[in-house]
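#lab-general

N.A. 3:47 PM
ok so I finally got the sequence cleaned up, no stray characters, all 424 residues accounted for. can someone with queue access submit it? mine expired

B.Y. 3:52 PM
send it over

N.A. 3:53 PM
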Amino acid sequence: MLPAARALAAQGDLKGAAREAWIYALPLIEMANTRQAQSPGLVVNRFHHVRKLTDPSRRQVTAPNNDTLFSSAWFDLSQGPVTLTVPNGGHRYLAVQLLDMYTNTNACISKRTFSREIGPEGGTFTLVGPGQRSKGPNPIHLATPHGWALARILVDGPDDLNAACAAQDLLSLSGPAIPAAGGYARRNAAPADYFTSAARLLQSDPPPRQDRTALARFAALGLRPGKPFDPGRLSASDLAEIEAGIAEARSKIVSAGKSAHFIDGWSYPKANLGNFEQDYDYRAIVALVGLAANTPEEALYLSPQGESGRLFTDDGPYRLQLPTPPPVEAFWSLTMYEATDEGQLYLTANPLDRYSIGDRTKGLRTNSDGSLDIWISRSDPGGDRTANWLPAPASGPFSLSFRAYWPREEFRDGRYRLPPIERV
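B.Y. 4:20 PM
back already:
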């Protein structure tokens, strides 16, 4: 590492180092800020339940779904393993995703993945931190001492809400109740503040050994795991180079988040979604526009092609015609989002209070041949189309996300493709 760092410092490429370091640290920054935003005075190793489906008022996490209740727990394994209890959801989709602080999915606990361990009364698992041993049941080893346990519990309409909340109450995390660390800078912070927070996070949750080459490339900044960041060592010209590098990084990630490669009008996730390894650009993009994305085996997240990459700018109407039901074992949905300038996506208010359409939406009208038309527009398309209307924002760019939970193999390997969304 040292020769590479010295070479970089000798070249004076602080701009390049800052660009790479900003991208590398972005998932850590987004995770820490999400932890801060979810609740003031948050205590870790305890579940906090959201008792209603996400609506436009909730903006803690970008690109949320409107299909499931969320139960969230930030775990701290620094004092030893923690016990997680997961209920048996029966026919209800129920999964607990375990993310490390670098946004990798270390495990997703459900009857798809742990059918033997989750009995009629549920299952008990032991979350084990790096370098730890445990005699607890069903150990699951986490890559970092801190992370996020995010449970999704399907709600099958308003009448099902109380039963879904009862399932939430059976989730538990048993471990030391520790106040969550706070005071982290946001992604738009000044360079000194951003990298000071990044250094804190690299110390509390050390990166994997496989990342040592990347860490050497931006060591010229003085950003090293286990060491505090000292902005006082940087001159005004150094800071100017660093700011230029961050500007390039931000532009690169924001632009990439708004664009995509499309197949028949849809952008399909990369195979390494949710377990990014050394794909730092993709990891940063997902942290910005889809934090806590799961792996393709658990859920496929598809984005349709609009007039500007992932973004639609016209008024519509548009139509998505599904000749046959998408091949999934759990459920599917199409969710509408308004888009911010940085590419973040949030639910948008509309006259129907309808934020998604899926296989559980009541009152949808199918065609005589069994196909389903979903109508997308800013204003009511009228007539029979209203029943199948997914309202777009009254103004501004918008984006859509198609979710397929527990997609079958033909969906994952490309034998099944969604038809494109067409302007009618």
